[in-house]
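Shipment paperwork, digital attachment
Item: protein structure file
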Amino acid sequence: MSSPALHLAVEIDGDGAHPAAWRRAAHSPDQLLTPRRVSRVAAVAENAGFTLITLDDGVLPPGAAPDPVGRIGAVERAAFVAASTSTIGIAPVVPVTYAEPFHVSSQLASLDHISAGRAGWVVTEEERPEAARAWGRPPVDGADARARESRDGVEVARALWDSWEDDAVIRSVATSRYLDRERLHYIDFTGDTYAVKGPAIVPRPPQGQLVVLGRPDQVPAAQLDVALVGGRDLASVTAAAAAAGTPRVFAEVEVALDTPDATAAERVADLEQHAPWRDRGRLRHIGSTDQLVALLAKLSHHVDGVRLHPLVLDEDLSVLSGLVVPALSARRLVARPLPGTSLRSTLGLARPANRFTAAAAATGTATATATAATTQEDVR
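Attachment content:
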């Protein structure tokens, strides 16, 4: 880890991590998908000092009746939030099991431009066979096949982000030159199931490469900037973090906190009457804020950050913002993102060199060396 600071991310899709969370929400169900709702939640997280918000997504509805099942695309919500925030990172969940990586890379690059370098990407999988029918594509069966699609999708997106060199855009009105064609590159990708020629249709993102987050068992560690690791206890999370092999590691933590109106256990029991809280193999905290602060302090020795999944956003996010984050700040365990900094900078990640620029530079160096050696031989 580059610093003692623990980066805090929070998932803000829907009304919370519990499928029946809407029953305890502070708004009526018909307000869930309004712009005011998503911007208000994002503003609470930003003002509290969170590093990152994530927005879950998938082509299929997130639940079933009688629960609300509507959802707006994560990239669209992220773009809206980007325009109304200034420091917090924004990472939509975008599976590439069936989605076209060329279009995904363009959307995410545009998001990075809109947010002035605060965008990330959470890579997941579409596991249900119904997703294939929704896309009108043959099913991708099996964990290995889904991992292949994720691997190839991330490789294509990263290559396309590099297909424009940083100074490819000229914008010279005097010379009527707006683009240097020599600084655009074909990526010439050929995978097991598709090929992509390139280049991209969007200039290189401000960060060079967006911050890519995902599970190491679904995406190769070499393609990730941040590994999202699970585990039902501290020892399991610690072991997963040590084995991740990525520049940064975030632990997945589900939280249900005591509130002035009810204890965490009472709130969970109330929701469990309507639906079970699915076990996703994540560390789960049900209890007081002091206990959560102590847990996060222990985690700070093993991971670079945590992604919190609140039981009910309207109840738990206010407690996280008002009590947990200030307590962590007082112990110097978290640091607030600074205005004008990219998400990569906030996480202590360097801006990567463009692969095509680096290749050209290496070729030029090799040519110069060969020329110098030939000249020296002629002198002899």
